[in-house]
Structure formats: C-alpha cells, structure tokens
Specification:
Layout: E1 7-12, H1 22-38, E2 42-45, H2 51-61, E3 66-70, E4 82-85, H3 90-99, E5 103-107, H4 111-122, E6 127-130, H5 135-146, E7 163-166, H6 169-183
Helix pairs in contact: 1-2, 3-4
Length: 184
C-alpha cells in the first residue's frame, strides 16, 4: 500500500512568508500544496519556513501525508508536516529529501535551492521548474531556453533529460500525472 504512493518533493525559498521573496510566491505555494493534496500525493519538503511551510499547509488542508525532512538544527518546523529529523547538515539533508522523492517541483529559491535543483538532476529525478517564481528556478529556465545544446530538458552535456518547465499549477499537475503514469 505505502510502497505505491507517489512522493513529490517541493523545494524553494526559505524565509518569512510575509516578506519578499516568499510573499511573492505564497499563493502559488499554497495552491500547489492544495493541488498535490487533492490528488493524494505524499508531499516532501525541508520541513521549515517559507515555501516549505506554505506547500505543507496547503497539502495538509487537503488531507495529504506531508513529511518535513529536516537537518540537525532545524528549528521552526512547520506544524503541517510530520518531522523526519535526519541529524545531518543542510546539504546532506537535501540528499535524503531528494532521494526519497519520485519527482521534484522547484519554486523560486536561493543558493540552497540551486544546489537541490542540480542534485535532483544528478539523481535523475524528474524535475519541474515553475516559471515566473523567480530565483534560481527562473535563472535555470532562462539557461534551458537560451542554450539549445541542452535540448530544453537537460542541465549538462550528458543530456539526461527529465527537466520540465511549468507555467501554472495545472501544468505541474499534468506533468506529475504523466510521470506517475510512466512509472506504473
């Protein structure tokens, strides 16, 4: 039963939900959480504030299982997730988070998110970048669109693929359904 559950990690900005840059994507993060919850995905986040908190809240409101994969000194765990405390530093925690996922969605993000984007790609996890959310997500979309040698779906010369660009929550959900169907 649990083995067949499809797990979606959502990565993105950390920080105060009432201040930029998180406040600029708060509605998107909350609505994405709602959409993931309605379709009964298991939602994985870093378990902290910012996008992680908002996605967790949206998913929990819809009755989804939400896991917050936290580092050794997490502090400020969102009340909307079951905490999985790894005892690891942030980078190693990200490895656990991403390796546990069947797909990854990125919303905006600073340096930590950029690392997670490249980790997800190197782990060959399907990666959905939400256009218009700023930060490293939009920077990487720009590179994908300008560098034709990457075929629009890869982050390096190996052309591993598996990178998708979504313009809306509906696009994200459609891509996730396709990824899930191809997995089954």
């Amino acid at each position: 039963m649990y083995r067949d559950m499809f797990k979606v990690a959502v990565i993105g900005y950390a920080g105060d939900i009432d201040k930029p840059p998180v406040s600029h994507v708060s509605d998107i993060a909350l609505r994405l959480g709602n959409a993931l919850g309605k379709e009964k995905y298991v939602v994985l986040t870093g378990g902290r504030d910012g996008v992680m908190h908002l996605v967790s809240k949206g998913a929990a409101e819809e009755g989804a299982i939400v896991l917050g994969i936290t580092p050794y000194a997490s502090g400020g765990i969102t009340p909307y997730a079951i905490e999985i405390s790894t005892g690891l530093d942030m980078a190693m925690r990200s490895g656990v988070l991403l390796n546990s996922a069947d797909a990854v969605v990125s919303i905006g993000g600073a340096a930590g998110t950029s690392i997670e984007i490249f980790m997800a790609y190197s782990y060959r996890k399907p990666l959905i970048l939400m256009r218009g959310t700023g930060g490293w997500t939009d920077r990487i979309i720009k590179i994908l669109e300008e560098d034709t040698s990457l075929n629009g779906n890869s982050l390096d010369y190996r052309l591993a693929g598996g990178v998708y660009i979504a313009d809306s929550i509906e696009d994200v959900m459609k891509i996730l359904r396709e990824i899930r169907a191809n997995r089954e």
